[in-house]
Amino acid sequence: MNKIVALCCGILFGIGLSVAQMVNPQKVLNFLDISGDWDPSLALVMVGALFVYALGYLLWVKPNNKPLLEEHFFLPTKKTIDKSLVVGSIIFGIGWGLSGICPGPALANLSGGDLKIVAFIGAMLVGMKCSPLLAQRIH
Q1: pLDDT per residue as tens digits for the range 115-131
Q2: Membrane-spanning residues where (predicted)?
Q3: pLDDT tens-digit profile of 21-68?
């Protein structure tokens, strides 16, 4: 049952990314280009996502001891900002700014068969495989 729910959530997420045009790298790059051809519409998408998250967190996570399909919530316990978080955020931001796409929209875009998206996902997988090496050097 968990896998079916996860699949449905993933499909819903992909549809939402498509409808919001977050799978369109040019739209994302225009959003990031605040000094040029800036497109603020994705800010509304982000505000909407934060609103839905906050509502779900306040109405479901906070008052309940466990989720519907698990024994307990898997909430982050780390509260500090460390070097790994900062370096990882910088690398993620550089990749997003250069390509106009991040992992979620890339996976949603994979069905289109665009060679650039396939190359992005390949590079992302290589980066994920190499990340433990970078993490060792940071610490």
Answers
A1: 888 888 998 899 889 88
A2: 41-60, 80-97, 117-135
A3: 888 888 888 888 888 888 999 899 889 999 999 998 899 888 887 888
What H or E segment, with its residue span, contains residue 120? helix 115-138
Q: Are the CB atoms for 110 and 117 separated by under 8 Å?
A: yes
Q: Under 8 Å CB-to-CB from 97, ≥6 apart: which residues?
A: 29, 32
Which residue segment(s) compose the domain that 36 sits in? 2-138
Structural domain count, the chain: 1
- Quickly tell me which residue has 């799978």 as its tokens: 23
Helix (H) or strand (E) holding 75: none
- For residues 135 and 43, give the distance between their C-alpha atoms in angstroms, rounded to a whole number: 32
On whether the CB atoms of residues 12 and 19 are closer than 8 A, the answer is no
With a CB cutoff of 8 Å and minimum separation 6, the contacts of 5 are: 69
